[in-house]
Design goal:
By secondary structure, the chain is an alpha+beta fold. Helix content is 42%, strand content 21%. It contains 4 helices and 3 strands. It has helices at residues 24-33, 58-69, 73-80, 84-98, and strands spanning 4-11, 16-21, 47-55. A hairpin with a 4-residue loop joins strand 1 (4-11) and strand 2 (16-21).
């Protein structure tokens, strides 16, 4: 059975890069090695692997990667910290802000 990973690396400039691979540690090493000069991480090395989630279905992994890529920095940091309440809180904050309403912090 194949295994796929959605991963996040923290770049040297503090930004995050999210990707999908079949080996998260190897892929982080490739980012650090600088194989592709056009890659986002190339000029932001070194990178550190800070998150990886495994999937047996590549379609589930692709959906998760796309979802994370749409998230705010705060929400990604909550995910990295395994703070699911923070992930939910930041989802509400962003939705309230997008609607032009201040977040009340209540459900």
């Amino acid at each position: 059975m194949k295994q796929f990973f959605v991963y996040i690396v923290r770049c040297d400039d503090g930004s995050y890069y999210t990707g999908i691979t079949n080996d998260a540690r190897r892929r982080a090493g490739e980012h650090n090695f600088g194989i592709d000069t056009r890659c986002y991480t190339y000029t932001r090395r070194p990178v550190e692997l800070v998150y990886a989630a495994d999937f047996s279905d590549v379609n589930d992994a692709i959906r998760w990667e796309k979802q994370i890529k749409g998230w705010s920095r705060r929400k990604k940091e909550a995910l990295i910290a395994d703070d699911w309440e923070g992930v939910r809180r930041n989802a509400r904050t962003r939705a309230s802000t997008a609607l032009g309403r201040p977040s009340t912090g209540s459900g």
